[in-house]
Amino acid sequence: MKKVFYFLFCLIGLSSCSSENTVLDSLRVYDVANSACKTNLSAVETRSDFYAANYAKPATFSVELGKDGTAQCLLEDVKANCGVRKIHVDVVSRDSQIDLIVYHKPLDAAANCLCEFDVKFKMSKLSPGKYNLNLYYATPNMKYSESTTAYKGQIELLRNKKVSVTFKPELVVPEI
After folding, report:
1. How many angstroms separate the CA atoms of 165 and 154, rounded?
2. For burial by CB atoms within 10 Å, which of 7, 19, 27, 78 has the most?
């Protein structure tokens, strides 16, 4: 009888350590929504002073952690080719590091201008605390490098408090 109880105890213990829970609890991005092109910049057709001022303006990222662990995120003034239909965001996380990857699908035809977009999205299953955040602008096949790093630093997330960071200026989501 003791062996039966021991077997049941072990079976219950093993089932609670299922890897399915780990997958369900991993960080993910969802509800991604893009603005229309807010500002159209063309080196040829835009007034040079307006082009220079807006091209140099850096994008920003803000995040606010809700009570349930859902982070409301906003990328503002992300620059990409005017031919881009939608900006996508993906996430890779391990321990206290979050890598956000911003990219778009391959272009049907590239335009000779840049647009500024705002991108809203949510991230799930975050706890309050300090995180190392890396934000990359990636090619359509999701390749990125140090040269396309928009932000690299530490942020501290607290419930119901907005945190904002500023990207490197003059950085554009790569076309290819």
Report:
1. 10
2. 78
Reduced to 3 states, what is the DSSP secondary structure of residue 39?
strand
Q: At 124, list the tokens.
A: 């799930």
pLDDT of residue 2: 53
Element (H, E) at 14: helix 2-16
**pTM of the complete model:** 0.81
Q: β-pairing, 60-65 with 97-104?
A: unpaired
Q: How far apart are CA 104 and CA 86, in angstroms?
A: 6
SS3 56: helix
> Which positions ≥6 away from 87 have C-beta within 8 Å?
32, 34, 75, 78, 80, 102, 103, 104, 117, 119, 173
For residues 21 and 76, what is the distance between their CA atoms, to the nearest angstrom? 34
Instruction: Point out the residues of the chain with pLDDT beneath 50.
Output: 4-24
Across the chain, which distance is largest between two alpha carbons, in Å?
86
**56 phi and psi, to 5 degrees?**
-80, -15
Helix H or strand E encompassing 157: strand 149-157
> pLDDT (tens digit, 9 = 90+) per residue, 114-145?
999 999 999 998 999 999 999 999 999 999 99
Q: Which amino acid is at 49?
A: D
